[in-house]
Design a protein that fits this description.
Helices cover 71% and strands 4% of the residues. The protein is built from nine helices and four strands, in the order H-E-E-H-H-H-H-H-E-E-H-H-H. The model has no long low-confidence stretch (mean pLDDT 85).
Length: 223
């Protein structure tokens, strides 16, 4: 799974891309300086994509990079490198406090608390639906952070992969062990049993165990 070192390496890779772009500098009309257009746009797209995935689209680093790194000139390239360097410093200094991963974690924890309240009030079906939603969202984020596509490209149009497919691909990429994958599959089956479209039901004991195990999974499989 992704950690600060992995993401630091990715930012450093994009920074090196920007430095190579600067090395293509040429001088044009009225001493204006330009860089290789194709390499610049590769750098721009890579920077936007990475900053969005790490910090989120509302983050200042992402927004500044998107609006400032726009045309293939040395000035714009240098601005991009400056923004990435600032993002790298922030990532190295305070990852838990500054990335959207912590925000997402808080939201999912709140949903788990809601599920617990539903269960305590006897509404086991609603509790199972919430836990299933949390599990699916966490798996999608985990896969995205580890370069696993969350959509099926064929047939067109692309469709989101099912939770069962996501956990299989995450397991194949060794994001967690075989035992954890088996647990996730059992949670999926249990939640499907409790779905409104089925005549089956889930017991309070089953739900309590699943809630505890999913809560543990959220804390261990971070991205």
């Amino acid at each position: 799974m992704k950690n600060r070192a992995d993401l630091t390496t990715k930012i450093e890779t994009v920074i090196r891309m920007g430095e190579k772009v600067l090395a293509t500098k040429t001088t044009g009309f009225q001493q204006q300086t330009f860089v290789n257009e194709q390499e610049f746009h590769d750098f721009r797209i890579s920077g936007i994509s990475l900053l969005s995935r790490i910090f989120g689209d509302n983050n200042q680093h992402y927004q500044c990079f998107k609006t400032e790194v726009t045309s293939p000139g040395t000035s714009r390239t240098k601005r991009g490198l400056g923004i990435l360097s600032a993002a790298l410093t922030e990532l190295q200094g305070n990852w838990i406090e500054t990335t959207r991963a912590s925000i997402t974690s808080e939201i999912l924890t709140e949903f788990m608390d809601m599920a617990k309240n539903h269960a305590e009030n006897g509404d086991l079906q609603s509790a199972a639906i919430l836990i299933n939603a949390v599990m699916e969202k966490h798996l999608r984020n985990l896969c995205l952070a580890n370069d696993i596509s969350i959509t099926n490209k064929q047939p067109q149009p692309a469709t989101l992969k099912k939770t069962l497919q996501l956990t299989g691909e995450a397991y194949k990429k060794k994001l967690y062990d075989r035992q954890q994958n088996k647990k996730i599959v059992s949670w999926i089956e249990l939640c499907n049993t409790a779905a409104p479209s089925t005549s089956s039901s889930i017991s309070a004991k089953q739900l309590k165990i699943m809630h505890a195990e999913v809560t543990s999974f959220l804390s261990q499989a971070q991205y």
